Each structure stands twice: as C-alpha cells, then as structure tokens.
# Entry
Amino acid sequence: MTEGGVTGSMKREIGVGIVGFGTVGSGTAAVLLRNADLIERRVGSAVRLKRIVDLDVTSDRGVALPGGVLSTDLRGLLGDASVDIVVELVGGCGAAKGILLDAMAAGKSVVTANKALLATHGEEVFAAAGRAGVDVGFEASVGGGMPILRALTEGLAANHYVSLAGILNGTCNYILTRMEREGLEFGDALAQAQAAGYAEADPGCDIEGLDCAHKLAIMAGLAWGTPVDVKEMYTEGIQRVTALDLRCAAELGMTVKLLGVAKRGETSIEARVHPTMIDAGTPLARVDGIYNAVHVVGDAVGDVMLYGQGAGARPTGSAVVSDVMDLARNVRLGARGRVPATSFQMDRRAAIPIRPMEDLVTRYYLRCMVRDRPGVLAGIAGVLGEQGISLASVRQQARREGRTVPVVMMTHRAAERAVQAALRSINGAAELVAEPVTVIRVEDENP
# Structure
C-alpha cells in the first residue's frame, strides 16, 4: 500500500500545457513557476509547465519562461505525452471548444476559465470527459479568485441549496459603485471603467448582464444537478440605471447591484439576472468596486458568503492553478473522476425547468418621468390598481409645473406578470409618462 492508500506506482511529475497566453494565461504561468515548490509540496509530485501555445510569441507578458516553452505549435502540445493537463485560456466558443475536445480525446484532463463555453456547450464538454475518462476543472470560470464552485461541489455538498445570490461581474459593480459614490451617469462611469482597464472596449457582454448569466447558469447547474440553458434565464443589464435611481435607493435605505439570483422551488428553479435593490445593511450591499461575492443558503449550513476579486491575471490565475493542482493529484494517483465535473453523478442528474419570469413575486421600484400636472399620478396609480398592484410609497422629487419631473413609486409585493401588463399600458400613454418607466426589482429574501 502506498501513500494515500493507493496501490501501485505514482506519477512523480505532472506536465501542464497552456493554450492562450493573454492576461489569464500569463497570470497562470506566473503562479505555476513562482510557486512551483509550494505546489509540489501540496500535490506530492512536481507540476511542471511544459508548453505554452499562442499566436503571439514575441510580446513581453512580464513572465520569465524557460527556453522552448512558448510556441505556436498546438498539435505539438496535444501530441506531447509529457503533457497530462491542458489549460484552455483562449476564450470564445469556437476554437476553444475544439481545443478542449481534442485534448480530452488525447487522454488529457483539461482546465478552462471559459464561462461562455461552459454555459452554452457544457453538456457536450462533460459528456466528452466522461467518454475519455478524464477530468474537467473550471473554478476560474466564476468569480475569478473566489472558490465558489469548489465550495458548491465539495465544501458545502452535504446541503440542499435553498438559494444563490451573487455579484458576479466586476465591471458592472465598479460602474454602479462610481455612480453611487460620485453621482456619475452610466456613460461617464463606463468611460471611467474603460480608462481604468476594468471594462472592455466593447463592454456589451458585461453591461447587458450576459456574463453574469453565464456564471449563474454554471452555479445553478452545480447546485441542483441539472443542465441550465442560459437562454431560458431572464437577463437584463444596467444601462438604464441612472444616478437618480441610486440617490433614490439611498433615500430608501437601499443600494442597487447587478445580481444573479437562483432559488430552488418545489418543481422548478428561479434563475434571473437584473439590477436589484437590496437593503444597504446586507453583506452584499457592501461589496463595491471590482469585487465579486456570492451569498449561499443551504438547509444545513445556513448562510455562507464568499468574497474576492472577480477578475485579473493573478486572482484568476490562482483559481486556474487550484484546478491544475486538483487534477494533478488525480493524475498522480490514477484516480480520475473522483469528483464529478457536474457535482452530481451523471446518472443522478435530472432536468429541472426554469420558472417563467412572469411568475416572480416581489416588490418593485418604479421611476416615472411625468408631466407635472393634475391627474397624472392618479392615472398611473389607477392603471397599477387595475392589475392588483398596490403602492407602499410615492415620492415626487421636485415640483416643476408643466415640465417633466421624476416620480418614484415603491410597490408592495406584486406579480411580475401584473407589473409588466401595467407598464405596457403606462408606457403607451403619452399623457402619463414622457419616457418608458424604469423598473428595478427589490430582493428582500436572502440577499
């Protein structure tokens, strides 16, 4: 009997190949090289960076690589018998999927930080891993350096999960923080984020909520053992949130965050992404700037919150290397498949439908830009009342007779279906509002 209770010889060196040497790739290589001794002491075998493949082999990434490691030769990496684990850091859903499938077909375990790929093609990737008898690691796909996926699949795995709620996009959180603290409008805060390097030149995937939706789909799938189709999730970005909305939220003792929220019902899963008002005293409300956080509720453990940097070379590289180490332990002992990539055994997973957004019941913040003249408020309240929506409070920011003024309404709990029906009527009435009503949902439970 050998160390760890496994009979037979153990692999003394595990080789790693990286495909993609951009920001995350360079951070991953830096951690592997700088912390090689620590990694070996924890894994029990040396974990060696054997190859890096990238189209650009001349730019300086600030990482001193051993000679001959960096090349453009993908075929050479995939065919190298000394490479046990392939790390895909190319991004996108085209070439990246092919790289993962080819690596697994070659008998290599894989690690990826590619949330878009996993959210849209995860089932294909997991099935391929099962056929090839290899492992898939993807901790870095959600939350950067915050180990939320390992918490869901291992640390908290004894729990029936009640809910997940997370700030999952650092770009949006940075923008909303700047808007709240400095009174900036969305466009100015976005430009500030781009200048600081926290937002892409084309920030659509972030500000429209899609990045957050990809991450929520991955987490929900692991939490409840079901494939989650991101296209079935309600997804709304932060583009229509204004500085006025954030001031109004503060007056109400609340703040606005882009949240991904998932909850387990009796027969379905609630999964949605949108700007959300939460009480300013809750832990998630205090997560500012580029930081991410996820609040988990389990039936046994109760409330747990993880917090950390959601992006960047070193935090994401840390998560990638944690997966490399986990898979390297399996390679070392010949124990692949010990923890299912999907958190549940494949034959124990079940398809659980996503609850229609129209069935949501919550409170709503409504900001109406109205003409300051008699009868307008009564007209809006009447339309809401026809849909069974009652108002908890109404605030008019300032009187400007005959001109457009903001009126802020907070509803009691109401059905999304009713709210949307009322808004269709209100927004179609030029005599009531000068522009479409801004809607922000309120999260009262487990934020």
Observations:
- The radius of gyration is 25 Å.
- The chain is about 35% helix and 25% strand.
- Confidence is low (pLDDT under 50) at residues 1-8.
